[in-house]
Design brief:
The complex is a heterodimer of chains A (187) and B (526).
Chain A lengths: L2 H13 L2 E5 L2 E5 L1 H6 L9 H14 L8 H10 L8 H4 L6 H20 L9 H12 L11 H17 L2 H6 L15
Helix pairs in contact in A: 3-4, 3-8, 7-8
Chain B lengths: L1 E2 L3 E6 L3 H12 L4 E4 L28 E3 L6 H4 L25 H5 L9 H16 L4 H4 L18 H4 L2 H6 L5 E2 L37 H7 L3 E3 L3 E7 L6 E7 L5 E11 L5 H7 L22 E11 L15 E3 L15 E5 L21 H13 E9 L7 E8 L5 E6 L4 H19 L5 E3 L8 E4 L25 E3 L14 H17 L1 H5 L1
Parallel strand pairs in B: 1-9, 2-3, 2-9, 3-6, 4-15, 9-18
Antiparallel strand pairs in B: 5-11, 7-8, 8-9, 10-13, 10-16, 10-17, 11-12, 12-13, 14-15
Helix pairs in contact in B: 1-8, 1-12, 4-12
Classes of the chains: A mainly alpha (187), B alpha/beta (526).
């Protein structure tokens, strides 16, 4: 890594935050802070972000507040080499936004078909649970998109990341984080 | 295309094998350039986080992954200087004598053109060069005698020790694991502090990654490491009998020619065949070193059978390393399991981080919502696991080939086709069955396994070694049969996979090949 790249990298990582765009300026904050401040999404449409938040919350309680949609949105907007998404390790072909768009469309289309027109975010908690349970087992009839089990794996990983993968997440479960180089008090 | 100043050797890839070649040849006085297509990572870039750790996972041109059991490139490969050895677990088991003669002894797979005794001195040299902790004498119940390791075994923790009762009940002898980590200070590098972040890169140098070992030595000896340099072709002279250097794209995407007397391909295992196939000329119409059609063939991986155990008490799940505390070659015999051919290598005792592909959350992948949270609260402290690695038998149809689709440099993407067969599945299942027996003989409260798709761990083959061009791409030193001044290095040259984690053998074979190249330089470089 050369000096310039290194400065940019350490600026974010040292503070442990991601670069979000607010009023045209790049601001470092956690995804949870970005959500709390209603930072506009870079690539996700409002409906897409709503689905990611609802799915994230159904998968891991707390994911919505931790800013799972802002995390995904920020990550799909950077180059694949900078992305920190589990999708990268799961061999999802860049650009990653294409996968998320296809996954979200598959989820909402299937939800609408099952519920008489309601998107996933509008399902009750019990309906969401049953939907996710069927999706993870590839048992949703008429599913159109990346396999349901794979969508479950990727979106569950994102939710796990923002809730448990941080220093705060470890602390909440009573596990010492013990970093050599601390990403940040949150990351 | 601009032409750079000629060097003695250009090494493609700054990972485990490339770093050994770079250090050895630079110390021998050769002018060395190491090309890598990714960033020039420093140890201080290795942040302790599963999330940030993904920055050192593959990000170059993707491979198209096909077959019944697609290769898990994203998790296994590397990105940038240090390669996959920046995030490897540093388990240092070795191949055993029986790995080198499967054809002779069982009329299956291949014999290697060398024996264990040819490699063993290099295992010892590597151990003393970069630091290995373990108990060689204890290991010698399984293997021929050799030198002692330079450091005593690593500390053990409850997450490892609670398994010993189960292994004993099943008559599986466990010995201290050999690992490329420091149990004591070693050559100016500090001892491990057991925080378990090895798999995202060890920034203190307690783990023997290339940045703090061979690559550091190479740089001190004058080798140049050229990051963000993507090699697309190996070029040959008009006669086709010698390579003349490599074509590459620099960080500004400008095409360059780097002349060299010798070329060593030390990229990721599938990238070496991709480069050879993309270097076809009228003299090598099927690709370089590929007159026999064997470039890209016999791709092999390992399959892990993991067993989870939940205890009533805290087993110090967060402590230790991501490598193992205990290991066993008890099932390394090729016919150790009835009805399933191939070796098995067993490890126990490692840190369980909460997230990431190998993290706690994925030990119950079917759980979500409040049930997942309840599980995480318990498993974060009370979960521990063992793993048995199985050996895939080589199959010619498991291969790397070029695809029609091209990358940003106009180079055809690689396609990796990989499937296990019934025998591989039988060995995987036999190791699951035994893992359950072991776990049930411990004091664990609950034991379970996750059997989803058969995993594809590590990457070997594609440029295998053999006795001649009739059966292989390279000789035992990695030199291609077809072009004398062209070498391949890394796990791609393994003739068979064994069941042991491959990097210790990669280091040993690379050192053997590099030392031989230095000794025979005038003949090879001409």
């Amino acid at each position: 890594m050369d000096a310039m790249e290194r400065r940019v990298f350490l600026k974010g990582a040292g503070m442990g935050m991601l670069a979000f765009t607010v009023g045209g300026a790049s601001v470092l904050m956690t995804p949870g802070q970005a959500r709390a401040q209603n930072v506009p999404f870079r690539l996700l449409k409002a409906r897409e972000a709503e689905t990611i938040e609802a799915m994230g919350e159904a998968l891991v309680p707390g994911a919505q507040r931790a800013g799972v949609a802002h995390f995904v949105d920020q990550q799909v907007s950077v180059t694949p080499g900078e992305a920190l998404l589990e999708a990268r390790q799961l061999n999802v072909k860049p650009p990653f936004i294409n996968f998320y768009r296809a996954a979200i469309a598959a989820v909402d289309k299937a939800a609408e078909a099952r519920s008489g027109g309601r998107r996933f975010a509008a399902l009750t908690a019990a309906e969401q649970h049953d939907f996710v349970d069927a999706m993870r087992q590839n048992k949703i009839d008429g599913w159109q998109g990346p396999p349901g089990g794979f969508v479950y794996l990727v979106m569950r990983s994102d939710a796990v990341d923002v809730v448990y993968g941080t220093m705060e997440g470890y602390e909440a479960l009573g596990v010492p984080y013990m970093p050599h180089i601390a990403p940040d008090k949150r990351w | 295309m601009a032409t750079q100043e000629k060097v003695d050797v250009v090494i493609v890839g700054a990972g485990a094998s490339g770093s050994v070649y770079a250090a050895t040849l630079a110390k021998a006085g050769k002018k060395v350039v190491v090309m890598d297509n990714g960033p020039d990572w420093q140890a201080s870039d290795l942040i302790s986080s599963d999330i940030w750790g993904r920055r050192i996972k593959p990000a170059g041109a993707p491979f198209i992954l096909e077959g019944k059991h697609p290769v898990s490139m994203g998790a296994q490969g590397g990105w940038g200087v240090g390669g996959a050895a920046l995030h490897y677990f540093a388990n240092f088991p070795r191949l055993m004598p029986n790995d080198f003669r499967i054809k002779s002894e069982h009329n299956r797979a291949h014999d290697w053109p060398i024996a264990y005794d040819d490699v063993a001195p290099f295992y010892d040299k590597v151990a003393h060069e970069i630091g290995v902790s373990g108990d060689a004498a204890a290991e010698e119940i399984f293997r021929p005698k050799g030198q002692a390791y330079p450091m005593p075994p690593m500390k053990t923790f409850r997450n490892g020790r609670v398994w010993l009762k189960g292994f004993e009940a099943n008559r599986i002898r466990m010995v201290p694991a050999a690992v490329g980590m420091n149990s004591t200070d070693f050559k100016g590098r500090p001892a491990c502090i057991y925080d378990g972040w090895c798999h995202v890169g060890c920034p203190i140098g307690a783990l023997a990654n290339p940045l703090v070992t061979f690559l550091s030595d190479a740089r001190k000896a004058g080798a140049e490491v050229r990051a963000w340099s993507t090699v697309t072709r190996v070029l040959t002279d008009a006669s086709g009998s010698k390579v003349t250097g490599v074509e590459y794209y620099d960080r500004n995407h400008e095409k360059q020619f780097q002349p060299a007397s010798v070329v060593v391909l030390a990229a990721w295992g599938a990238q070496n065949p991709r480069l050879l196939l993309n270097s076809a000329t009228d003299k090598h119409d099927k690709g370089l070193a590929n007159r026999n059609g064997l470039v890209g063939k016999y791709v092999m991986t390992h399959f892990a059978s993991g067993t989870n155990a939940m205890f009533d008490e805290d087993v110090e799940a967060h402590l230790g390393t991501i490598g193992a505390q205990f290991m066993s070659y008890e099932r390394y015999g090729k016919t150790a399991h009835q009805g399933a051919f191939g070796s098995t290598f067993i490890v126990a005792g490692f840190t369980s981080k909460l997230t990431g592909l190998g993290g706690v959350a994925n030990t119950r992948p079917e759980l979500f919502g409040p049930a997942l949270h309840a599980y995480m609260k318990r498993a974060a402290t009370n979960l521990t696991r063992i793993t048995a690695f199985g050996e895939e038998q080589p199959k010619i149809e498991n291969r790397v080939e070029l695809a029609a689709e091209k990358d940003e440099f106009g180079m055809p993407l690689g396609r990796i086709i990989h499937s296990y067969d019934d025998n591989d599945a039988a060995l995987w299942n036999a190791n699951f069955e035994e893992g359950l027996k072991i776990a049930k003989a411990t004091d664990a409260k609950d034991v379970w396994q996750v059997r989803a798709a058969q995993p594809t761990i590590h990457f070997m083959g594609g440029t295998i070694m053999g006795t001649g061009a009739a059966n292989s791409v390279v000789n035992s030193f990695g030199q291609t049969h077809e072009v004398a001044n062209l070498y391949c290095a890394g796990p791609g040259i393994f003739a068979t996979a064994g069941a042991s984690n491959p990097t210790y053998t990669v280091f040993a074979l690379s050192l053997r090949g590099a030392e031989h190249l230095a000794k025979t330089w005038s003949t090879v470089a001409g």
